[in-house]
Amino acid sequence: MRAFLANSGELLARVREQATEDDSGDLEERHASLTNRLAAQHREKSRYVKLYGQGHIDEDELEIYLADLKNQTENLKLLIASVEADLARKQEQALAAHSTEAWLVALRKNLQDVERDGQQAAQDRRELLKLLVEKIVVGRSKVGRTKVDITYRECRSRSKRSMRA
Asked: Where are the domains of the chain?
């Protein structure tokens, strides 16, 4: 645990990179484009109704046009919802990256608190391990030596480290 906290530079670098990544501009442009296309569909519907009212198209043609427009509109609404979900996920990931970075920096600054003696300190270390470590697998290597695999929790990726005793 001490080694992880003292040498969390690689993880901090990845978290900082993730926090500064901002490819949501493409998603926002796509959202604006889809919203504009949806507005155009509504204008097209009004145009068809107006053409029907003026007698330029008959009722059967209007029905076909409106059914087609309805399908296109529903598809656009689904695409817009998908882009909105992607934007929300990006915001959530950025927030998680910022909070993870702050948490790791605070832990590194207070490393000596983690190493203090006493029953409360031991309990604090156990709680910290629960937060940092996803799983620990202890077994034997092919030559009979003890093998410990530790998988740490991270923002987007997983880190697996092996220790041999």
From this structure: 2-116
Task: In whole angstroms, give the CA distance from residue 20 to residue 93.
Answer: 11
Helix/strand/coil for 164: strand
One-letter amino acid for residue 40 of the chain: A
d(CA 44, CA 69): 8
- Report if pTM > 0.85: no
**What stretches of the chain adopt beta strand conformation (E)?**
133-140, 146-152, 159-164
Within a 13 Å sphere around the CA of 56, how many CA atoms are in the beta-carbon half? 6
Task: Tokens for 132, please give them.
Answer: 């940092």
Burial of 145: CB neighbours in 10 Å, binned 0-12, 13-18, 19+: exposed
Q: What is the pLDDT of residue 161?
A: 43
